[in-house]
Amino acid sequence: DSQGPEAYFEHLLAEDSRIEPRDWMPEAYRKTLVRQISQHAHSEIIGMQPEANWITRAPSLKRKSILMAKVQDEAGHGLYLYSAAETLGTPREKMTEDLIAGKARYSSIFNYPTLSWADMGAIGWLVDGAAICNQVPLCRASYGPYGRAMVRVCKEESFHQRQGFEILLELANGTEAQREMAQDAINRWYAPSLMMFGPPDDDSPNSKQSMAWNIKRFSNDELRSRFVGMIVEQVKALGLTLPDDQIRYNEDTKQWEHAPLDWAEFKEVLAGRGPCNAQRLARRREAHENGAWVREAAAAYAAKQSAAQAR
Ligand code: ACO
Questions:
Q1: Reported pTM
Q2: Is residue 46 within 8 Å of 106, Cβ to Cβ?
Q3: 160, 124 in Cβ contact below 8 A?
């Protein structure tokens, strides 16, 4: 291109096309993507823990196999995302080191405990529901490998959301104790799931630039509002309630409104002081150490194979 790589990058953004790994890109664009994609990958991997906690206690063989498959899907999502981040030049080992050293972020939501079987329902319905709401627009993210990974991830997340909703539906139509357990899970997961969308727009330092680069398509508050509008209808089908009596549709702004969220709590969780942060990181570190022999064996095998090919 006669006008140089910078103009070509701007041209691709202007026509809403995709930037691919070999294309020139501003360093800040690369850095933002590595930040977001690696955080997203870590969230999928850490997110396996709260649900894995219930695999041994799932109420039937069928529920157990569904839950195991779901937790495995999350591992798969983490792996696609690490691969997408690697195309930007940051090796997976580096991202993993940062995570286990406690230097990397992952979603606030996975620092809350899973106290009952109904939490598997609430996570599927609310947490995966929020993830879909946030991630469907990311299928159109300007960075090709990220957008393409999101397409597959969203398909699997839709299945996860339905299985969660179905768990809640069954409990809601069960005994009084089951119904109460479902309501309690919704009460505990509602506000943390709204916080998954990130801080309010006036306190979101990255949004403006990420939107200008076609990475984010909607602001944190826009997506949060859209999510509230979805679940306020869906909860009726469960015959349960959301723990928020301030939900209303504002005709002027065309946004769903909800009760104020506790952003001080959000900041505590981000600072590493949520209910389960220490436990989640300790488990991740342990798993990494226990996997050392697998990495060594895989590396030795790969070295042998390439030596054999060179002969
Ligand atoms: N949990 C932890 N950290 C968060 C959260 C959250 N829920 N929301 C925002 N943050 C962090 C941001 O990463 C940023 O910190 P950083 O600058 O150190 O990276 C800071 O809070 C300020 O937030 P924003 O300026 O709004 O950040 P950003 O523009 O990146 O928007 C968002 C945050 C919406 C989470 C965005 O990064 C995103 O869409 N990520 C991809 C989706 C994702 O990560 N999902 C994971 C959970 S879903 C799942 O895995 C099933």
A1: 0.96
A2: yes
A3: yes
